[in-house]
Amino acid sequence: MILAPSILAADFGHLAEEIARAEQGGARLVHLDVMDGHFVPNLTMGPAVVKAVRRATRLPLDVHLMIQNADLYVDAFADAGANWVSLHVEALPHLQRAVAHLRERGLKAGVALNPSTPLVSVEEIAPELDYVVVMSVNPGFGGQKFLPGSLDKVRRMRDLLRRRGLAAQIEVDGGVDEGNVKLLLEAGADVLVAGTSVFGGGDPAASARRLLEAAR
Ligand code: DX5
Ligand code: ZN
Questions:
Q1: What pLDDT is recorded for position 202?
Q2: Ligand 1: does its nearest atom lie under 6 Å from the Cβ of 171?
Q3: Is 190 an active-site residue?
Q4: Are β-strands 84-88 and 131-135 bridged in parallel, bridged antiparallel, or unpaired?
Q5: β-pairing verdict for 191-194 and 169-173
C-alpha cells in the first residue's frame, strides 16, 4: 500500500515541516489537489505551490487536476516537478490525447472518476494508464464523508483491470480513514490518499503510522 497524504488539509504556513512529518510516519507519495473554481466549486493551488513542495521533499508528487482544460496546464505542472498527474474523465473530451501527452512528458498517467461516473468511461483508456483514481467523495473539499458505495466500485474496478490483464494501480481519494483503509485494500486499492486523517489531528507522523497500522 502507498499512503499519499493530501496537503489540502495541512498547515500551508508550514508545508515543508508537515510533509516531513508525514514522511517520517511512512507516507510515500505527496498528493496535491489543484482546483479552479469551475470544474469544482473551490480554489486551491497552482504550479507555484507544486514547485515549492518539490523543493521541500524528495517524495514523488501526485498532482490531481480538478480543473477545466487540464490539458493546457500539464506542461506547467510537469515543469514544476510533478511526477504523477491525474486528469478527470468528466473534464476532458479528448482524454486520450491528454493521457498520451502525460506519457510523453515522462509522467505517471492517471485518470480520475467522480462518484457518479461509471467504470465503463475508463475502459477504452485503461491500457494507457498507470493509475485510476476512484473518487470516494465529490471532489472540491477535504474533510468530507467517505461514500460507502465506493468500496464496491473499487472492487469492480479491480475486476475490470484483472479481466483485461492491465497493470494500472487503483488510487482511492476522499474520506479515507482508519475505519476503511483495510476494507479498501481488500477491495483492491493500491494507493490511498488521506488529507484530514493525516493532517487534521495533532501529529502527521503519528497519524500516518496509525493509518498504516490499521491497514495491516
Ligand atoms: C477532494 C480531494 C481530496 C481531498 C482528500 O476534492 O481530491 O484529495 O483533499 O481529503 P480528505 O482525506 O480529507 O477527504
Ligand atoms: Zn485529490
A1: 87
A2: no
A3: no
A4: unpaired
A5: parallel
Query: Nine-digit cell at 162?
Result: 484483472
**What separation in Å is there between the alpha carbon of 98 and the centre of ligand 1?**
23
Pick out the chain residues at pLDDT < 70.
none
Task: Give the ligand 1 atom nearest the CA of 146.
Answer: 14
Q: Which of 3, 6, 43 to mutate to test the pocket of ligand 1 (most atoms within 8 A of CB)?
A: 6
Which residues, including other chains, have CB under 8 Å from residue 216's CB and lie 6 or more apart?
Answer: 182
> What would the pLDDT profile of 12-33 be if each residue is shown by its tens digit?
999 999 999 999 999 999 999 9
Find out whether 81 and 69 touch, Cβ atoms under 8 Å: no
Among candidate residues 36, 71, 130, 173, the one labeled active-site is: 173
What's the CA gap between 43 and 53, in Å, rounded? Answer: 18
For ligand 2, the distance from its centroid to the CA atom of residue 111, given in whole angstroms, is: 12
Q: What is the pLDDT of residue 206?
A: 98
Domain locations in the chain as residue ranges: 2-215
Ligand 1 contact via 6 beta carbon (within 6 Å) = yes
pLDDT digits (tens, 9 = 90+) for 67-105: 999 999 999 999 999 999 999 999 999 999 999 999 999
Q: What is the CATH number of domain 2-215?
A: 3.20.20.70
- Nearest bound ligand to CA 141? 1
| Assessment of whether the complete model's pTM goes beyond 0.85 | yes
